[in-house]
Every structure is written in C-alpha cells, then in structure tokens.
Amino acid sequence: MTKIRRTDLALVLIMVLTLGVQATMKVPANLFLFLNSMCAELPDAVWQNLTLLGDTLVLLCCMAPLLWLRPAWIYGLIAAIPLGSFLSLFFKNAFNAPRPGDVLSLSDFHAIAPVLSGSSFPSGHTITAFAFAAVIWMSLRQEEAGAFKRCVQTGALLLAAGIGLSRIAMGVHWPQDVLAGACMGWLAGLSGVMLVEKYQAFWQAGFTKWAALFLLVISACYLAVRSPPTEVVVNAAMASVLVAALFQAARLLVNRRHLKRPGV
C-alpha cells in the first residue's frame, strides 16, 4: 500500500509557499524572460508537440497500449483527474492571475500561438504532466530497485519537467504557475494511486478495462475532430488507441477460435 512520505509532505509545503508567493509578490518577469529566451533556441515545433502531452486526453491516448502492460498507470491517471481538476479550477478562479501576454508586450518575449489571456495560475498542463509522473513513480516504489525502475521513474520526471517548461516556452505561463502545477499534479497523482489501491475490486473487474478502452476510443475520436491533422503528438495518440483496440480485437478472435476447437 502506498504511504505518504516526507518528500510528499515537502511538496505540500512547497505548494503552500508558492500560493503565498503568488498572492503577495509581483510578477517575476525577469525569470520568465530568461527561461523563455533560453527555450527559444529550440524550434517552436519541439515545444508545441511537447506541450500537447500536457493535455489529459492526449496523454491518456498515448498511454493506451499500457492498458495491457501496466493498466494501473492508466487507472491511476484517470483516478487523479478529480483532484487535479478541482485544484486547477479552484485556484484559477481564486486568483484569475494575468498571463505573460496580459502584462508584457509581445515584442518582449517569444510567444508561440495561441497567446492566451487570464487564469494563469496554476498551469493545468503541468498538473497533468506531474500527475502522470507521480502515478508512475508511486506505482514503482514497491518494486525492487533496478535499471528499469530507475530509467522509467527518471524518464517520467524528465518528461513532466519538459512539459512544464514548454508552458514557459510557449509564453503562456509564469514560472510559479509551473511550480505550483508540479506540486498540485504530484498530489493529484498520489491521490490517484491511493484510490486505485483502495478500490482494487473495482479497478480489477473485467468491465473496467473495457470501459477504459471505450473511454480512450471516444477520446481519440474527439481529438480527431478537434485537432489539426498536422499535430504529430495527437496523431501518435490516436495511433496508440488504434493499436490498443486492434490488439484487444485480436485477443478476442484468438480466444474464440481456441474455444471452438474440438476437445477444448
């Protein structure tokens, strides 16, 4: 069973401090401008595709093949959505903080369209990214140490950090938005893992995997209608769902043929 550790409690403290900073200090434009200019050294397409992974539907669809390899990871991210969404909506409405484009001239920083306005704090994409990282990190805590565990945990954290940084690179969030989003996302991911562990009978039921696959298919269809066909990450997400659905169809076909064999 996943237990709260000191590092998890430290994240709560960091989040509280970040909230206090957001409520009292002026916009930290210098740090934003430094990070934004540094990120501008890479092509815009890198940040545009990376930031798309902070979209919950896109990330879940990309994870679709894990439904038969590591279903707890998908279930954990789904179970993290309630707390993550609550934290995002509550603080966005509570602060209604201006975004960089509301405060700075567009000529002062590198903005990658679209330039958003209002409700900057916290970064919702970063919440999703770190909820994903937390689910993977917590799920692997109980496993024996090894190269696989270290690589996957480190990779998940690096990906989440990259998604958070992409929000600054896009010119739509301040650094404290990303920091708060990381803390809130980690807490949401922790809640997701705990919910999956507490209600194992539900998550391990046969219909749950089918329901998750159906949700992913619906999400992929929505992405196909909503997103331009040129978005590489979205296309990869839809392809992942297609692979997962075809794999399940093949499994059903094989099982039916096996049952129809004489003497079986």
Structure, briefly:
This protein is mainly alpha-helical.
Strand and helix map with partners:
Elements: H1 6-24, H2 29-39, H3 44-52, H4 56-62, H5 71-95, H6 100-103, H7 124-140, H8 147-169, H9 175-198, H10 200-203, H11 206-226, H12 232-260
Helix pairs in contact: 1-9, 2-8, 3-8, 4-11, 4-12, 5-7, 5-9, 7-8, 7-9, 8-9, 11-12
Number of domains: 1
Summarize the amount of helix as a percent range. Answer: over 70%
User: What structural category characterises the helix and strand content?
Assistant: mainly alpha
Note the beta-strand portion. under 5%
Q: Unreliable runs, pLDDT <50, ≥5 residues?
A: none
SSE string: HHHHHHHHHHHH
Q: Work out the number of β strands.
A: 0
CATH class: Mainly Alpha
> Helical stretch count?
12
Please outline the major beta sheet: none
Q: What overall geometry do the principal axes of the alpha carbons give?
A: globular
Q: What is the arithmetic mean of pLDDT? A: 89
CATH architecture: Up-down Bundle
Distance between the termini: 40 Å
Rg, Å, rounded: 20 Å
User: And the CATH topology?
Assistant: Vanadium-containing Chloroperoxidase, domain 1
Q: Can you tell me about this structure?
A:
73% of the residues lie in helices and 0% in strands. It has 264 residues and is mainly α. It has a single domain (6-260), classed as Up-down Bundle (Vanadium-containing Chloroperoxidase, domain 1). The longest helix is centred in the C-terminal third of the chain and has 29 residues, at 232-260. The model has no long low-confidence stretch (mean pLDDT 89).
